[in-house]
């Protein structure tokens, strides 16, 4: 969705499905179980039943006080005889009935009304209406189709799905199930799909995906429209009663504002409507496939326990067990598994191959978690014969009801998995050798792929998993042909295709647009004129894609070794070549906007004519006062000149005379130009201008003109940037070495990256080592001689490969260790006829500084490395003076506010421990909130004098004022016992500041950071 000009995603919500739930909890005081049932509607009041330790059956209506269930049944119109015949043989109901003194339906209704609305007069009509409204009126109560479906399934009844309210039969069936569960029955007679069937009696697991459903976008918006319409209805009803019948028109009656407001509010402020993550194609795709248990009608972070967050057997093939955030949301936010889909009721289904009498068919059935319970499911890797029968008599399979994995006879198997990557999400299925990684690290790997920044030149991984093409195309960032044809002409931003069916079709490309995250969104043509294109083929790559494959990082030559301790604790050492040749450079685009508004004192103006600004600063502005495209800008440069009217001050006679003579206007306006903020620089690539007069009406009230400026910068890799592999192996660049100092191979090739080998054993993400070896093999190319044992599983086509071949090792179905060792022995030799790396995967490296070999062999190979969005340029920050907080007069905090570094309580203790009194006094006074002192210090530094004694900090005065407000007479005494007068020093400070020409107003405007 595009809301207010930004792309947003509405995340699907995971909620508990409406239906009936049974539960058993052991009682703390006795050895009995307390059995309860809850009927939860899609909207309306809950209905809860409970059998306590005295075997009394109670009912709670709308979460109020507990009552006897027999009173409730009598209120619904059953007599005592009806109850006894209906529940014959159940002692708990007979027991409850014997304690019940109410006889007629009227009394029962009155009793219920008394308990629900205590202290009110009871009319028989009101009492009847109360129950009707609670459970039997479609206006107030709605089970929804899914609720009715779950109710039918659980209670073994056969009502049409359109019955969205409860019936007496439903309530009786629920109580029957409850007392049967209490008695310990295993099954009872019911109806399924119109046929009699034995219904299993069991408690429910609320975390099972059979009991949790997805509320997708449509349903979430529908709920908003419903509330909007009901508000509108209220307004219409009110107006109908108040307005004159003759004068009524539909326009006067109906006000659509509540509906519009409800929809706007949902998209603008709902927890489920999120700013789209556009770091790279994978991030966008994953964001759209996200499932969240948070949000309105869901859970909250604080209340969610461990059980809800945990991985459940029913997640298999429905929600990924790996990809979830670290931190407070762990387990509450998940991603859909690769093959999952959502059915009409909102339950997630996953595909299985049907097995008939021990033979796997080509038929594929999508099953929900509750349907899967009935079957035994074999894994996708089960060996089969040519005719589709299982090659073994007993097959390893899992029982559908979350049971253990066990060996079962082949004819008992009902289904078989479709694919080994069925259980994981898209991002997780892009990790090669996932099966060799610890789950916690795989989680980081999956999450960090979404933070990879698109590089200037994308390069798809040498070692992939075969999912790269699907991910890139399904993300929608590559341009694919809708119809077949021949490419007619190609330019940088449009491709024209002559269609087979006649006519032409133009595909327009986005060039250097800014994504939501400030990365560059650029599409590049991959076809040439005259080329034949089939429907669905890739015409142009998007950001972070190469030839229609996802390409998040770069294949770099890595060595696992220590180097002078510079890669201690996950630090990374890079070669200078990676800075020089730009393989890890990325383009970032920032947008800055300025509005010219109407103020109380007059209109703001966008102009080149700025007061007290040297012509040197205006050299790149055009006659409108807006910077030209292509200008190089640095911090503090003017992007858009703007002046704001100043309040007229009383002028002295002399000044009035000078004004009259020179017609001097410059004192009436102040310069509020848009400037480049601290730490930002780059090239102007676009300027957009909006005018209220020209009908750009969405500017908002009081805004006459808006100018938006786009600045692009190329960021080379540098110390402090964060790099990561796909296995959760992340680190920060600590040193960039000259290429001649890097360790090199026997043939003189210097390595690109040095990683610390200690990052592997404790983290247990061994997949990165296998990826490194396989990356080396793929880069060198290989040729297998004969048919060795280890190559039995290799496809015939893979016995020989040219250098730089791309290889895929699918998740849970990848290359084996002996295959990798065998291929290392079969790699193509160098010109000298030797192999640099043998089956150990290690080789001798030479020190670039001395040329001496390192004492032990070192693992070397190609790893796919991503540059993450945590860039040092966005984090580095320094301040000398700047804005201060209004109340405490202390500097603000944070880079965005151009704040200072907090010197907190514990830091004060540290300096106290060293007795560094003067350093401490400076920090707490003149560097913080001693207003007069800090101005005086500035003055002394400017004039080159000695710095004076610090004064009294503002926060001390605030403390005194607070104590005085509590009626405590506090005064400050000097060393000799005389009272010190704490005047407000503001006037002195402002006087001193004015003499120095410093503006120390506490209002902090982004356009002028360098105020002090």
What does this structure look like?
- It is a single chain.
- Helices cover 25% and strands 24% of the residues.
- The protein has 1012 residues and is of the alpha+beta class.
- Helix 4 crosses helix 5.
- The chain folds into 6 domains: 18-204, Dna-directed Rna Polymerase Ii 140kd Polypeptide, Chain: B, domain 3; 341-418, DNA-directed RNA polymerase, beta subunit, external 1 domain (Rna Polymerase Beta Subunit, Chain: C, domain 4), CATH 2.30.150.10; 479-541, RNA polymerase II/Efflux pump adaptor protein, barrel-sandwich hybrid domain (OB fold (Dihydrolipoamide Acetyltransferase, E2P), Beta Barrel); 588-713, Beta Barrel (OB fold (Dihydrolipoamide Acetyltransferase, E2P)), CATH 2.40.50; 722-872, Dna-directed Rna Polymerase Ii 140kd Polypeptide, Chain: B, Domain 6 (Beta Barrel); 879-996, Alpha-Beta Complex (DCoH-like).
- The longest helix is centred in the N-terminal third of the chain and has 26 residues, at 217-242.
- It holds the Pfam family RNA_pol_Rpb2_6.
- Belongs to the RNA polymerase beta chain family.
Key structural traits:
single chain, 1012 residues, alpha+beta, Dna-directed Rna Polymerase Ii 140kd Polypeptide, Chain: B, domain 3, Rna Polymerase Beta Subunit, Chain: C, domain 4, OB fold (Dihydrolipoamide Acetyltransferase, E2P), 7-stranded mixed sheet, 6-stranded mixed barrel, disordered C terminus
Short description:
With 1012 residues, this protein is an alpha+beta fold.
- Class from helix and strand fractions: alpha+beta
Number of helical segments?
25
Largest sheet data: 7 strands, mixed
Q: How many E strands?
A: 53
EC number: 2.7.7.6
Protein name: DNA-directed RNA polymerase subunit beta
Family: Belongs to the RNA polymerase beta chain family.
Pfam families: RNA_pol_Rpb2_1 (PF04563), RNA_pol_Rpb2_2 (PF04561), RNA_pol_Rpb2_3 (PF04565), RNA_pol_Rpb2_45 (PF10385), RNA_pol_Rpb2_6 (PF00562), RNA_pol_Rpb2_7 (PF04560)
């Amino acid at each position: 969705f595009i809301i207010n000009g930004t792309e947003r995603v509405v995340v699907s919500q995971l909620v508990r499905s409406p239906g009936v739930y049974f539960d058993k909890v052991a009682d703390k005081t006795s050895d009995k179980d307390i059995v309860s049932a809850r009927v939860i509607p899609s909207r309306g009041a809950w209905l809860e039943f409970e059998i306590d330790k005295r075997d009394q059956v109670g009912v709670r209506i709308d979460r109020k006080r507990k009552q006897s269930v027999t009173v409730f049944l009598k209120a619904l119109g059953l007599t005592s005889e009806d109850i006894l015949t209906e529940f014959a043989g159940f002692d708990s109901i007979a027991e409850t009935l014997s304690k019940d003194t109410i006889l007629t339906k009227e009394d029962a209704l009155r009793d219920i009304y008394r308990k629900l609305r205590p202290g009110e007069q009871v009319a028989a009509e009101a009492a009847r209406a109360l129950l009707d409204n609670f459970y039997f009126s479609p206006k107030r109560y709605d089970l929804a189709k899914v609720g009715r479906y779950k109710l039918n399934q659980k209670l073994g009844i056969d009502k049409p799905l359109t019955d969205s309210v409860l019936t007496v039969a439903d309530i009786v069936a629920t109580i029957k199930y409850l007392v049967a569960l209490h008695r310990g029955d295993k099954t009872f007679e019911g109806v399924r799909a119109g046929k009699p069937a034995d219904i299993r009696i069991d408690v429910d697991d609320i975390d099972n995906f059979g009991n949790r459903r997805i509320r997708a976008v449509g349903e979430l918006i529908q709920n908003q429209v419903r509330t909007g319409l009901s508000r509108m209805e209220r307004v219409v009803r009110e107006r109908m009663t108040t307005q004159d019948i003759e004068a009524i028109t539909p326009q006067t009656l109906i006000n659509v504002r509540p509906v519009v407001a409800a929809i706007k509010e949902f998209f603008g402020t709902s927890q489920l409507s999120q700013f789209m993550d556009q770091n790279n194609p994978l991030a966008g795709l994953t964001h759209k496939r996200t499932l969240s248990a948070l949000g309105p009608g869901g859970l909250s972070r604080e209340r969610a326990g461990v059980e809800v967050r945990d991985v459940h057997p029913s997640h298999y093939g429905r929600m990924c067990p790996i990809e979830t955030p670290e931190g407070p949301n762990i387990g509450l936010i998940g991603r859909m598994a690769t093959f999952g889909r959502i059915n009409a009721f909102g339950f997630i289904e996953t595909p299985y191959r049907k097995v008939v009498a021990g033979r796997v068919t080509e038929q594929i059935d999508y099953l929900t978690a509750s349907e899967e319970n009935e079957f035994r499911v074999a894994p996708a890797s089960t060996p089969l014969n040519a005719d589709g029968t299982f090659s073994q008599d007993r097959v390893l399979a899992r029982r559908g009801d979350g049971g253990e994995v066990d060996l079962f006879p082949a004819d008992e198997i009902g289904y078989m998995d479709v694919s080994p990557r069925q259980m994981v999400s898209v991002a997780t299925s892009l990790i090669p050798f996932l099966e060799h990684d610890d789950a916690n690290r795989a989680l980081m790997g999956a999450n960090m792929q979404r933070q990879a920044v698109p590089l200037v030149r994308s390069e798809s991984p040498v070692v992939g998993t075969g999912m790269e093409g699907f991910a890139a195309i399904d993300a929608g960032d590559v341009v694919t042909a809708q119809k077949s044809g021949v490419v007619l002409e190609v330019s940088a931003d449009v491709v024209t295709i002559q269609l087979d069916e006649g006519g032409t079709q133009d595909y327009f490309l986005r060039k250097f647009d800014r994504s939501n995250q400030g990365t560059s969104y650029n599409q590049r043509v991959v076809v040439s004129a005259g080329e034949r294109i089939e429907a669905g083929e890739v015409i142009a790559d998007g950001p972070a894609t190469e030839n229609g494959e996802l390409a998040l990082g770069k294949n770099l030559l890595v060595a696992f070794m220590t180097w002078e301790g510079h890669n201690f604790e996950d630090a990374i050492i890079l070669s200078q070549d990676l800075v020089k040749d730009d393989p890890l450079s990325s383009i970032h685009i920032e947008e800055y906007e300025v509005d010219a508004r109407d103020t109380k004192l007059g209109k703001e103006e966008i102009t080149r004519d700025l007061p007290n600004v040297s012509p040197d600063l205006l050299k790149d502005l055009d006659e409108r006062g807006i910077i030209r495209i292509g200008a190089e800008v640095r911090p503090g440069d003017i992007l858009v000149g703007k002046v704001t009217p100043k309040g007229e001050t009383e002028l002295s006679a002399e000044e009035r005379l000078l004004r009259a003579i020179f017609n001097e206007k410059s004192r009436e306006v102040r310069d509020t130009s848009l400037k480049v903020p601290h730490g930002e620089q780059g090239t102007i690539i676009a300027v957009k201008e909006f005018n209220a007069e020209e009908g750009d009406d969405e500017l908002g009230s009081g805004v006459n003109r808006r100018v938006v400026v786009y600045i692009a910068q190329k960021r080379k890799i540098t110390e402090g940037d964060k790099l990561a592999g796909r296995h959760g192996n992340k680190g920060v660049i600590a040193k960039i070495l000259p290429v001649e100092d890097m360790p090199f191979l026997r043939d003189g090739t210097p390595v690109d990256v040095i990683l610390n080998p200690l990052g592997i054993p404790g983290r247990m993400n061994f997949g990165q080592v296998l990826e490194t070896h396989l990356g080396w093999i793929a880069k060198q190319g290989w040729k297998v001689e004969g048919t060795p044992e280890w190559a039995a599983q290799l496809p015939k086509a893979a016995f020989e490969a040219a250098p730089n071949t791309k290889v895929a090792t699918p998740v849970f179905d990848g290359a084996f260790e002996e295959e990798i060792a065998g291929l290392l022995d079969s790699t193509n030799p160098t010109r000298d006829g030797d192999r640099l790396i043998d089956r150990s995967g290690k080789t001798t490296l030479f020190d670039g500084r001395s040329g001496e070999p390192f004492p032990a062999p070192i693992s070397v190979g190609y790893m796919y490395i991503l540059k993450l969005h945590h860039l040092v340029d966005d984090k580095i920050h320094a301040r000398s003076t700047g804005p201060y907080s209004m109340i405490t007069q202390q500097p603000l905090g944070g880079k965005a506010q151009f704040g200072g570094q907090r010197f907190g309580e514990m830091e004060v203790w540290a300096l106290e421990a060293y007795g560094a009194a003067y350093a401490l006094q400076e920090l707490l006074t003149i560097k913080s909130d001693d207003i007069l002192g800090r101005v005086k210090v500035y003055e002394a530094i400017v004039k080159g004098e000695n710095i004076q004694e610090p004064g009294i900090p503002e926060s001390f005065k605030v403390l005194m004022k607070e104590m005085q407000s509590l009626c405590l007479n506090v005064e400050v005494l000097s060393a000799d016992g005389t009272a010190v007068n704490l005047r407000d020093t503001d006037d002195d400070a402002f006087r001193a500041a004015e003499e120095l020409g410093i503006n120390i107003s506490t209002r902090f405007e982004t356009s002028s950071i360098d105020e002090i």
